[in-house]
Amino acid sequence: MTEAFATRRLPADAPGLAAAAAILSRGGLVAFPTETVYGLGGDARHDAAVARIFAAKGRPAFNPLIAHVADADDAERIARFDDRARRLAATFWPGPLTLVLPLRRGSDISPLVTAGLDSIALRVPAAPVAQELLAAFGGPVAAPSANPSGRVSPTRAEHVIAGLDGRIDAVIDGGACAVGVESTIVSLLGPAAVLRPGGVPDEAVADCVGPLSAPAPGDPHAPRAPGQLASHYAPEAPLRLEAVTADAGEVWIGFGPFGRDPALNLSPSGDPVEAAARLFHILRLADAAGRPVAVAPVPDRGLGRAINDRLRRAAAPRDP
Ligand code: TXA
Ligand code: MG
């Protein structure tokens, strides 16, 4: 059981980052902004720190975490890269892409990070605050999204506090995340496959490494991951998708011309990049109304695929 204690809010300046790095160095937990969503960071080499991440989130321990590193050289010390991995890293890092690669033997990553797999998910985040934290800490940081397991990912420090106050040591307040949906996860353990659509459109990944395979459902390397569960990113309210009108009792999340409340429109101009950046915040605002939620259709192209993936999971039946 985790004891409740005060979660510090740290400013995203040099003293705040130094305090955050010191917390990580003694095995504590710090939530920090990346360009996708806020991550719940702990030292990826420290078993107890990683165990605390799972406890704070209430996350099933068999779900592996992403390790965040400062650059591709640090990533190559942890995993084995092939030509495709180097091309993707050169094109999209730092940025919203996670690569699943063979773990190097003898790496000092805690086996809790990989859930005992011989592969590892690695990402080099682009947000300056994340980069500065990794530089100040000087080691790999394991970080799932900083929300209770199964809930909507946080894109602002206040979302982190709403879900995890008293369960983590600190949160660095770096404002709203620019991308707003999680990283695209590409497995390179076999033919390149997108395990989770995200901030880098699938089309851009395919442009870099050629046609993508579907992840094999029985693939031992495709673990049952929260991001792969049907119900995930779930608000409290029931969600109805592809709604071109809303019923009287419903809150309507709009997109482009569909919707009635501009504050709840993902993008009045119909821009999927803007819609992704606003998605989780607007889901939270709509949820707070305590009424059923209808969501306007979002075209399934580019970032629209990641948006629709998260909306489908948010709308999925909750009970297995
Ligand atoms: O944008 C993001 O990716 C954010 C920020 C904080 O970086 N992180 C994030 O982490 O979304 P999380 O833990 O919520 O999702 C990580 C996903 C999970 O679906 C997990 O199963 C998958 O990565 N994953 C991790 N290691 C894996 C592995 N070895 N093989 C396959 N999937 C893996
Ligand atoms: Mg998550």
Layout of helices and strands:
Layout: E1 8-11, H1 14-25, E2 30-33, E3 38-43, H2 47-57, E4 66-68, H3 72-78, H4 83-92, E5 97-102, E6 119-123, H5 128-137, E7 141-142, H6 157-164, E8 170-173, E9 184-187, E10 193-196, H7 202-209, E11 239-240, E12 251-253, H8 272-288, E13 293-295, H9 303-315
Helix pairs in contact: 1-5, 8-9
Bound molecules: threonylcarbamoyladenylate (TXA) and magnesium ion (MG).
Rg over CA atoms, rounded to whole Å, is 19 Å
Which strand order does the major sheet show? Answer: 1-8-2-3-7-4-6-5-9-10
The shape is globular
Provide the helix percentage. 25-40%
> Ranges with pLDDT <50 over ≥5 residues?
219-227
